[in-house]
Amino acid sequence: MMKTTPAAIAFGLCAFTTVNAADIDGQWARGDGNAKVRIAPCGSDICATNTWIKPGTPKEKAGDRLVMTINPDADGGYAGTAFDPQRNLTYKLTVTINGDKMTTKGCVVAGLLCKGVDWTRIN
Asked: Judging by beta carbons within 10 Å of its beta carbon (0-12, 13-18, 19+), is residue 111 exposed, middle or buried?
């Protein structure tokens, strides 16, 4: 099973010029309470950077970053890829945003291993 990391955002999001960054940009708390991330432009992409990790959470640390290249999809969400430089993994990524709620789904191994994560926008 895929470990919940920034890539499970998010996992995460994007060819910045084609994505409505206002939907994605900001601070997000992971549904399990173990992480908070800041999503913001980074060059031509969007990055999700861990700003806080609950003590004792294995394989994650503050400062870990996920680089996302996504585009709007037919369902009103976003789809593309996310690269996790800490683990040298690229994920197929989908993102759905509804107000202050976000769901990310990251898949590896040709889409055979997937994990969805819920997020809530925080101020």
From this structure: exposed
